Amino acid sequence: MHLSERLRVSDDGWRLVETGWDADRAPHVGTNFLCGNGYLGYRGTSPEHTADDLVALVVTDTYDTVGDGWQELVTAPNPLLVAATVDGSPIGVATAERVETSLDLRIGEFGARFAQRVDHALVEVDVRRVASYDDLHLLTQRWQLQADADVEVDLVDGVDGVVWSLHGDHFRTVDLDDRDGTIVAEARTVEHDVRVVVAAASTRHGGESTEVDPVVEPRRRFRRHRVRLPAGTPLVVDTVAAVVTSNDVDDPGDVAPALARRGRAEGHEQLLSSTTDAWRRIWDDLDVVVEGHLADQTTLRFSAYHHRICTPAHTDHLPIGARGLSCQGYQNAAFWDQEVYNLPALWLSEPHLARNLLVYRHRTLDGARRKAERLGYRGAYYAWMSTDTGDDVCPDVFFVDVLSGRPIRNHFNDWQMHISPDLATTVARYVEITGDERFLVDHGAEIAFEVARFLHSFVLYDEVRGTYHCIRLLGPDEWHENVDDNAFTNHQAHDALAFAVDTHERLAADHPVALEQLRDRIGLTDDEVAAWARVRDRIALPEPDPDTGLIEQFRGFFELEDVTPEQVRARLLDPGEYWGWPNGVAVPTQVSKQADVVMLLWLHGDRFESKILDANYHYYAPRCAHFSTLSHPAHGMVAVRIGELDRALAHLRTTATVDLLSTAPSVVGGTFIGGIHTAACSGALQVAVQGFGGLGFADGRLVVDPALPSAWTALEYPVAWRGHHLRVRIGSDGSVSIESHADNPGPVEVVVRGEPVTVEPGARAAA
Ligand code: IFM
Q1: Tens digit of pLDDT for each residue in 716-736?
Q2: pLDDT tens digits, residue range 709-718?
Q3: Mean pLDDT to the nearest integer, 322-340
Q4: Using CA positions, which residue lies closest to atom 5 of ligand 1?
Q5: Residue 116 and residue 96: Cα distance in Å, rounded?
Q6: How many CA atoms lie within 13 Å of 762's alpha carbon, on the beta-carbon side?
Q7: Angle at 315 between CA 309 and CA 317, to 5 degrees
Q8: What is the position in ligand 1's atom list of the atom closest to the CA of 330?
Q9: What is the pLDDT averaged over residues 358-364?
Q10: What integer is the mean pLDDT of 49-56?
Q11: Interatomic CA distance for residues 645 and 619, integer angstroms
């Protein structure tokens, strides 16, 4: 079935196939068909491609800044280049007649097949590539060429160190050599002198070949062969590539070539097979099955695939970048996306990965403390864009006014303070769901206290009303900067303060020694905790209007011009104009960039009556331009809650296809923001599982309260909770069955539509 003219999904719901070659689509295909494993990402480009075609091998933990440029991960030298001319004609997707690129989601395999007529012969090329999930440093690629007549092939393969890099050349040196048939590139980064070593070990079979002088150019080293290839004989180049950096091991220069050679000895098939096994285990905890709609099934699997490969599962030192490892977009930094979108899609499926991400936030507390201090606050003001140290890498100027060419000073970095309470409330929810008390004591409490400290120093007291206020900030709607008492932010701040006070009490009762040590370490006093409680009790919480039920997005919002996004768009003088602060077309209007009050309804829906959710969803949704891919999933979650299932499905579909159908702009206000939208990927999973699937957690128990859209005949998803593994299946008739894995430690009670159901290990219970 087709998702678009060029893109189709296979009948089993596991493969995506793009037909034909279109230079404009190529950047998107490169992103969508990314191979990755949380350590590295290799874009879905063809082996003959180079930097101009946006080839990129992005490697975690290599953050680097060139001069005054923006910090980002490096794109390593490309070890998988294979290029051929056949009887003098260059072969490649751009010149071929029939091109098909594909992604097999089951094992993360990129594929490219194409046919090209050269003179008297038809040449066919087939490429397969995976990033290993068995050894995260390895990539394996098979390139195969065959012709229907005898041909002469001029073949090069090796390492191309001329890379696509958004913000400068991150390598002060790139040394290349051939060590016993393994081409090794050793690059050193500019800022921290990190050694990034890439090794390519290849084998070649088929035809009669003669090795000729290697191609040695600045930053490039390729082996070169002339091959006489008889008709019908496959010429195969298998390349095993290893990427290792000095942040991983002391001597990457030895380790990378050794790994590549070992991989070559094992062979492509063996590496594929071990990765297939690893993916089988991953999908056990990841796969959400949708019956009745093949496109929804496959796009959801696509979302799940990218949600997983952007997650640095191997470490608790690193974040999930807003564009994962698909390119250097958004500087490979984590935003609030990580805690509100990515992480909740993990805490009931792979909770240890959710924990890793929060430990990363704990490790980066010092960066948050530095930011708070620099801006005149106390405690932890988390970075809007966080990389390895937690210092804010968000530049003052992100966009340019395309009309005047002048830079726009946005205040994402110093005013968008909901990031801190977002993190603290996520910690609270993580601990509540997982029962991970150890995390709370060792990490979570410190985050909670430092965020509360920050909030206490941030709020202003209104002596006349006796209330606390958050002023001069941005809520999630980034077009409206410098606003006061954003409803979402204030509610989040309230909950973060409540969590800090509760945690202090809980630790005092259950972990007094640990609490005393922490208090000593961060200099916490009883007066401060009492102050947090005061602010919690008196912070202004924008409430629904008694007549209309509407919650004002921020103070004065309803006085802004009430127009639609289409009317605002018609005012643009240039389609590339930035709509937001300070002079953009949306600023004097109620048109929001993305879900804002709807975020409040999503995360705090329980505190409002259903008619309030209804009124606000219907007021704000038509006024939202959805210029962020974070917007539709939030709307989807709320639409499920108010029973608007078809609308919710439309929000989910928009979310799950944003990359596949390339509906989000790659450049805004002159800045490249392309690449995979990791929050949308995880957000799509949340809408499916926590929205339609109704998976939640309340009063210490798992809850399943589902509502399926009519297009789906069944939904099935895995749950991992406190050592128990379950599979929940929901039928179109509303039936719910819960299967408990035989190895589970004991019975589990799940509240299905308000009724408790107990499932024994190895049994299935229906409700
Ligand atoms: O965090 C988001 C923000 O809400 C909207 N702009 C893009 C960021 C990264 O996804």
Answers
A1: 999 999 999 999 999 999 999
A2: 999 999 999 9
A3: 98
A4: 628
A5: 4
A6: 2
A7: 115
A8: 9
A9: 98
A10: 97
A11: 18
Closest CA to 81 of 300, 254, 241: 241
**pLDDT score recorded for residue 650:** 98
Q: Is the dihedral of CA 504, 509, 515, 520 positive or negative?
A: positive
Average pLDDT in the chain: 97
Q: Listing from the earlier edge strand, what are the strands of the sheet with 748-752?
A: 695-698, 701-704, 748-752, 755-759
In this prediction, residues 172-184 reach a mean pLDDT of 96
Residue nearest to atom 4 of ligand 1 (CA): 476
Q: Is position 211 annotated as part of the catalytic site?
A: no
CB 302 within 8 A of CB 660: yes
* Active-site entry in 109, 478, 481, 644: 478
Residue with the nearest Cα to atom 6 of ligand 1? 628
417 Cα–ligand 1 center, Å: 13
DSSP states of 704-725 as a string?
E-----TT-SEEEEEEEETTEE
Q: How confident is the model at residue 105 (pLDDT cuts 50, 70, 90)?
A: very high
- Show the ligand 1 pocket: residues with CB < 6 angstroms: 322, 330, 335-337, 476, 478, 628, 630, 679
Phi, psi (rounded to 5 degrees) for 605: -55, -30
Distance from Cα 97 to the centre of ligand 1, integer Å: 39
According to the model, what pLDDT value does residue 602 have? 98
In this structure, what token pair is assigned to residue 247? 């942040």
CB-based burial label for 184 (10 Å; 0-12, 13-18, 19+): buried
Out of 335, 386, 423, mutate this one to test ligand 1's pocket (max ligand atoms within 8 Å of CB): namely 335
Nearest ligand 1 atom, CA 629? 10
Separation of CA 650 and ligand 1 centre (Å): 21
- State how far the Cα of 685 lies from the Cα of 693, in Å rounded to an integer: 10
Taking CA atoms only, the protein residue closest to ligand 1 atom 9 is 322
Residue 688 has pLDDT above 90, yes or no: yes
On whether the CB atoms of residues 157 and 48 are closer than 8 A, the answer is no
Q: Reply yes or no: is the peptide bond before residue 718 cis, omega within 30 of 0.
A: no
pLDDT of residue 666: 84
Mutate to test the pocket of ligand 1, among 478, 480, 599 (most ligand atoms within 8 A of CB): 478
Instruction: Over range 460-479, report the average pLDDT.
Output: 98
Supply the pLDDT for residue 115: 98
Angle at 700 between CA 696 and CA 701, to 5 degrees: 50
Q: Which atom of ligand 1 is nearest to the CA of 412?
A: 3
Q: Which atom of ligand 1 is nearest to the CA of 677?
A: 10
Q: Whose CA is nearest to atom 7 of ligand 1?
A: 628
* Pairing mode of beta strands 78-86, 89-91: antiparallel
Structure confidence by residue, pLDDT tens digits, 397-416:
988 999 999 999 999 999 99
* Ligand 1 centroid from CA 100, angstroms: 33
- Number of separate helices (H) and strands (E) present in the chain: 20, 33
- Residue 594 CA to ligand 1 center (angstroms) comes to 9
CA of 628 to the centre of ligand 1 (A): 6
Q: Can you read off the two tokens belonging to residue 240? A: 């095993």
Looking at residue 665, its pLDDT comes to 81
DSSP string, 140-170: EEEEEEEESS-EEEEEEEEEE-----TTS--
Whether the pLDDT of residue 671 is over 90: the answer is no
- 679 Cα nearest atom in ligand 1: 10
- Span 35-51, mean pLDDT? 98
Distance 631 CA to ligand 1 centre (A): 10
